[in-house]
Design a protein that fits this description.
The protein has 290 residues and is an alpha/beta fold. 39% of the residues lie in helices and 22% in strands. It has 3 domains: 6-85, Orthogonal Bundle (Arc Repressor Mutant, subunit A), CATH 1.10.10; 92-161 and 255-278, Periplasmic binding protein-like II (D-Maltodextrin-Binding Protein, domain 2, 3-Layer(aba) Sandwich); 162-253, Periplasmic binding protein-like II (D-Maltodextrin-Binding Protein, domain 2, 3-Layer(aba) Sandwich), CATH 3.40.190.10.
Length: 290
């Protein structure tokens, strides 16, 4: 009788979910060699190749796809049993705030990993503007917040930075118009920066929409009725970055910052560590609940 090991299955799931051994190792707080060895042992146990290694990008083989369904059920059942039967578990609620344009793809992965470690802790996700999130944190209504800013404020920790890009509809041409039609939320932190860049370039603009809803702004842009600005890695698939030679001023770079991670309880500190790992930042060894 051959028995599947939950720890090995967890590593297999991480590789499948995060698209490679390197990211999976970071999320599991293991070395790359440890994760690779666990995958090798799992393949030897089953006598099949779980990964298609014929290309530079790791993908699941047909056998790997078949195992994936079983692995999810087995790991989930294991975590549920441990969570319910363990006496020393953390309970409660953590509020995590993030601007809508940086929620994907990191935050869902982080929340999934956190739930596996702390199944009885509820995470409430609050999506709002950077300015509103700072206010929420100062009032004690959020435990951790992510922000998009040129520079972190006091108490902020920069996780990564990336270019701020002009965005428009796929194949759109509205960026060629004068005055330049713009679409920004009234509370968007990028709005004053963009307007100042246009004024310095002596370019005439017109605000095509006045709204507090991010979805309304994206609808205007995707309809090729206006353009906006987003961080490079957060541009949704229905929009595209405008070419660098479009004649619009360069918008520079913006940082993704984390606030509220200092002097927190174990569960919140663990969530903060997962967020750091999600953005590829080195962290201290994590403490996991029983």
């Amino acid at each position: 009788m051959r028995n599947l090991d939950i720890t090995t299955l967890r590593s297999f799931l991480a590789v499948a979910d995060y698209g490679g051994v390197t990211r999976a190792a970071g999320m599991l707080n293991l070395t790359q060699s440890a994760v690779s060895m666990q995958l090798k042992r799992l393949e030897e146990l089953l006598g099949v190749n779980l990964l298609d290694r014929s290309s530079r990008k790791i993908a699941l083989s047909s056998d790997g796809e078949q195992l994936l369904t079983f692995a999810r059920r087995m790991v989930a059942l294991n975590d549920e049993a441990v969570g319910r039967l363990t006496e020393d578990v953390f309970e409660g609620e953590i509020t995590l705030g993030a601007p809508h344009d940086v929620v994907y793809p990191i935050v869902p992965q982080v929340l999934k990993a956190f739930h596996a470690a702390y199944p009885r802790v509820k995470v409430r996700l609050l999506s709002s503007s950077t300015m509103s999130l700072h206010d929420t944190l100062s009032k004690g209504e959020a435990d951790l917040i992510l922000t998009t800013e040129a520079q972190p404020l006091s108490g902020g920790e920069t996780l990564t930075e990336m270019p701020l890009r002009w965005v428009g509809a796929i194949g759109g041409q509205v960026w060629r118009k004068t005055p330049l039609p713009l679409a920004f939320c009234s509370s968007c932190i990028f709005r004053p920066l963009v307007l100042s860049k246009l004024e310095l370039a002596d370019m005439v603009w017109d605000m095509a929409i006045e709204s507090s809803e991010d979805r309304s702004v994206e609808a205007m842009i995707s309809a090729d009725l206006a353009i906006g600005a987003m961080m490079e890695d957060s541009i949704p698939p229905h929009l595209e970055a405008l070419p660098a030679n479009c004649g619009l001023p360069d918008l520079g770079r913006q940082k993704i910052n984390l606030y509220g991670a200092i002097a927190r309880d174990e569960a919140t500190a663990h969530l903060a560590d997962l967020i750091r790992q999600g953005y590829g930042k080195a962290v201290l060894p994590m403490v996991r609940s029983a």
